[in-house]
Design goal:
With 747 residues, the protein is α/β, with parallel strands linked by helices. The strands form seven sheets. It has an eight-stranded parallel sheet with strand order 12-11-10-9-8-7-14-13. Helix 1 links the parallel strand 7 and strand 8. The chain is globular. The N and C termini lie far apart (59 Å).
Length: 747
């Protein structure tokens, strides 16, 4: 970091001094300001920043912001535009980038891609896998190229595919190897470079101090190493992806920006400026992270900076190391789906620890979601948005229920501080109470339910049992007695009153005073759409609901659930109303399970990653109750809210992988899935550096063929463990750090 005094900016902020096209990250002219965390600096100092504010009124107002920049303090920066529209999905306008014969950009469909898992040197196996991927409908395929032998094989792979009439564009995945990138650029259509390790050494997580001269020398070194590849791509008509990975930022970047989204953006911009200096524009950006919240923030910050610079390069979207099964699909839906509904993204990959062809279907579902939303320009009427945080996670926490004088039962457990799960329960389920209790994940002690870590918080009962059905009503009383909320519609409660139930009302019912028919002290739950005229929402200021259910019918295509909810939260913030809001999504009959997971992740997840919302109520009449419950908890955990099971950061495998990732991942999950609060990284290799473990407590990493290295955080603690002993060694490591509990036994 440059050792500068007050009023002088480090070399990575030249845009505050100049506006040419080589400038660094800048600040938009704006009246609004937000805090961006993570800009860790080495020494405490006072930095004076002059910011030119909005000059549309005809005069420039200069505010001198005096802000402490000691380590860990947030930097005050202007609120910046990050998408085309805040009230509807409008696809961001980009230039066209050609990858072989496939065009990327806003004038073209959202392209889907995946990556081979074969040994690249095995030409026949790789060709067969590429053909299978192409037959499944992928537009682009990426292949790892780590050395000279793999680069030589790439020529054979390309030629063999052409001979078999497969012209799908091929992308070389490059780390640490500029000469290999130069070689493979002669035959492949696109080169992916990782700015964190293409010219810089692997991060050692050392805090470095730079003079301005030192910093500039490192930038000159990057330009020297990267320029030949850019020139070669120009010569052969190739494309580039400048693909930043949250887990592999260089020590230089982290020493100034910290392990942050802004560091990810600046890392990519260093390479982009070189491309632009050489008049090369056939490139795309990506900002991948295993944490969907970080991933969303990084892409938004990237786009906001591109708006500021006047750049229009396409985006490749992805959540890296998402994992497998519904967990992996959920994480990808949260990250990718959020951005697609803001009109961002031109090509996507869903990274799963599964065969690559299995990635194509969820990838296609997400692409279709994005294309449909942008075609319809789904949204709501324009509204002013002032309170949402685009570039950092700041949760809006609704006021949890508090006990009121005279109440016979404890309502405080109806919602959970880290995020709530509500479930719709039928009369048939009440016929077998013990089975219902288990379905709600309650512990049973002598047939009586008790709440546990992952017990459903409240239930919606659309029909109440008859007053003379004593068994069903006793089952409900036992749930209410353990502080589980029971919600039922107004008409049901008036016809068949259930003591201590919470009553579900619509805004219309409130407006005509129907709630006054209920006994005084009855708790209300109010269902709102979010697109109502603000005048209709005003009635919320006169009542004290326990929670709101945000419920927008799925049949109304032109309306966007995400934008309607943002509008609702804006109204609540404007009026200082801190009611908890539950995202209530009712899916249509017959929906595919993957469609439900992706729909829930893209719609509710897009709000939860912004800290908007306090829980979920997912309904699908023909879907298994346990599946809906687990999907709800998975969604909360994927948004970094309520942690109810072991978190896995699992890479999708590639030609570098040193063991059977799918088999080992399944083995580790089977033995460790009962450890909520523990996160485990399962990595086929360490190509991106130990930063890959940034989100994990423990790491299981291929170090050499047949050998495993174990990590605690980013630090390797055991090397070269024989694979057959490695899973048990991981368990022992977890025990040594006091994070192990024995698996629960069945009652």
């Amino acid at each position: 970091m440059a050792t500068t005094g007050t009023g002088v900016l480090p070399p990575s902020f030249p845009s505050l001094k100049t506006k040419d096209h080589h400038s660094g990250l800048g600040f938009v002219k704006s009246l609004d300001f937000v805090r961006v965390s993570g800009l860790n600096r080495m020494k405490s100092r006072r930095t004076k920043i002059s910011v030119i504010r909005n000059s549309n009124t005809g005069q420039d107002i200069i505010d001198e912001l005096q802000q402490s920049s000691s380590q860990g303090s947030p930097l005050l920066v202007p609120r910046q535009r990050y998408c085309e529209s805040l009230n509807k999905t409008v696809r961001r306008k980009t230039r066209t980038v050609m990858v072989g014969n496939v065009a990327l950009g806003s004038d073209h469909p959202i392209r889907i891609q995946t990556m081979t898992t074969t040994d690249t040197k095995d030409v026949s196996a790789t060709v067969q896998q590429v053909m299978k991927i192409a037959d499944e409908g992928a537009d682009i395929v990426r292949i790892t190229v780590q050395g000279k032998k793999e680069a030589d094989a790439c020529f054979e792979i390309k030629n063999s595919l052409v001979q078999k009439n497969y012209n799908i564009p091929l992308v070389a995945d490059i780390h640490f190897a500029p000469p290999i990138a130069l070689r493979v650029a002669e035959c492949f259509d696109k080169i992916r470079v990782n700015p964190g390790n293409f010219a810089d050494r692997r991060a050692q997580f050392e805090k470095l101090v730079y003079t301005e001269e030192d910093y500039q020398k490192e930038l000159e070194h990057i330009e020297e190493v990267f320029t030949p590849l850019v020139e070669k791509c120009k010569k052969y008509g190739r494309a580039l992806r400048i693909g930043t990975n949250h887990g592999s930022l260089s020590d230089r970047i982290m020493s100034y920006y910290g392990d942050s989204p802004r560091g990810m953006v600046e890392s990519a911009f260093e390479f982009a400026r070189i491309c632009r200096k050489l008049d090369f524009h056939n490139f795309v950006f990506s900002m991948k992270a295993s944490n969907p919240v970080v991933m969303v923030q990084a892409y938004r910050l990237l786009v906001s900076e591109m708006y500021l610079q006047g750049w229009d390069y396409p985006l490749h979207l992805g959540v890296t190391e998402a994992g497998e099964g519904e967990d992996g699909r959920m994480k990808s839906a949260i990250g990718i789906g959020t951005l697609l509904q803001d009109g961002l993204g031109d090509t996507i990959r869903v990274s799963l620890t599964e065969p690559p062809e299995e990635e194509i279907d969820p990838c296609r579902k997400l692409a279709n979601l994005g294309m449909r939303a942008s075609k319809l320009q789904s949204g709501v009427e324009p509204f002013e948005e002032k309170h949402r945080h685009y570039f950092e996670f700041q949760r809006r926490t609704g006021q949890l229920p508090v006990q009121k004088e005279g109440e016979e039962v404890d309502y405080r457990g109806a919602l959970h501080r880290d995020g709530s799960v509500l479930m719709s329960v039928s009369l048939d389920q009440l016929k077998v109470p013990e089975k219902l209790y288990k379905s709600l994940s309650a512990k049973l002690v002598v047939g009586m339910p008790f709440k546990d870590l992952a017990t459903v918080d409240s239930i919606l009962l659309r029909q109440l049992p008859p007053i003379d059905d004593h068994d069903a009503r006793l089952a409900l009383k036992r749930l209410i007695d353990i502080s589980m909320g029971v919600i039922t519609p107004l008409a049901e409660q008036l016809a068949k009153p259930l003591p201590n139930a919470m009553v579900l009302l619509t805004l219309k019912q409130l407006s005509i005073g129907a709630h006054k028919l209920l006994p005084q002290g009855t708790r209300f739950v109010v269902s709102v759409r979010g697109d109502e005229p603000f005048e209709e929402l005003q009635i919320l200021k006169d009542i004290d609901p326990t929670m709101l259910l945000h419920d927008l019918p799925h049949m109304e295509d032109k309306l966007s659930r995400v934008h309607a909810a943002r509008r609702l939260f804006e109204f609540l913030a404007d009026n200082s109303l801190n009611f908890p809001v539950i995202h209530h999504i009712q899916f249509q009959n017959g929906i595919n399970r993957d469609d439900l997971v992706i729909g829930a992740g893209a719609n509710a997840g897009a709000l939860l990653v912004d800290g908007l919302g306090d829980g979920l109520l997912l309904e699908a009449p023909d879907k298994d109750f346990d599946f809906l419950r687990d999907t709800s908890f998975n969604l909360l955990q994927g948004c970094r809210m309520r942690n109810t099971k072991t978190e896995y950061v699992s890479c999708p495998s590639c030609g570098r992988t040193l063991f059977d990732l799918q088999e080992i991942s399944a083995e580790i999950r089977e033995k460790t899935s009962h450890l909520p609060g523990v996160s485990i990284a399962i990595m086929g290799c360490i190509v991106n550096g130990p930063g890959e473990m940034a989100d994990a407590d423990f790491g299981y990493v291929g170090g050499a063929p047949g050998k495993i290295d174990l990590y605690v955080g980013k630090t390797v603690v055991k090397r070269g463990i024989a694979m057959e002993h490695a899973t048990n060694a991981l368990i022992e490591l977890i025990k040594e750090h006091g994070r192990w509990v024995d698996p629960p036994t069945e009652d």
